[in-house]
Amino acid sequence: MAHRFRFTDDQWLPVRPEELFPFFMQPTNLSRIMGRAMQVTVLHTTHDPLEAGALIRYRFRQNGLPLRWTSRIVECVPPLYFVDEQVEGPFAYWRHTHRLEAENGGTRVIDDLELEVPLGWLGRLAWPLIVRPNLRRTFNQRKQAMEALFPTDGAFSAARLAGVAPTT
Fold this sequence. Notes:
By secondary structure, this protein is α+β, with helices and mostly antiparallel strands. It has a single domain, classed as 2-Layer Sandwich (Alpha-D-Glucose-1,6-Bisphosphate, Chain A, domain 4). It contains four helices and seven strands. A seven-stranded antiparallel β-sheet has the order 1-7-6-5-4-3-2. The termini are far apart. 18% of the residues are buried.
């Protein structure tokens, strides 16, 4: 019997949801926020910017292993949330809800993942030993990248108000 796991994470950024949402809808930004170690490359997308129904094909490395992944945006309600589901990839099931909630003049980005690890009991054993730690490391890397792009010291917000693009 399949067992679904849940993983959640959140991060506050000093950018309003209506400013941040378009950033997430640009497929090329995935490689900018996922860390150099993962070497994410978007191979194809059916929509740019992303919207409900869009397919995204990409490749990346996890623990040195090359992987391919295809996901579909199944729900998209700007600037509140979007949901992607794995169509093809390493998991038996993957559903990732990205919520953007206005908070203290910025945005709380909340990630809620529901997933199944393949291989039955081996997958259930791999969850606490390999999969969950990999997810934690991946989301920590993403947090660092997002903080560099949208610094909490207000540099991004000030640049945005002045009409100047932030430097990366």
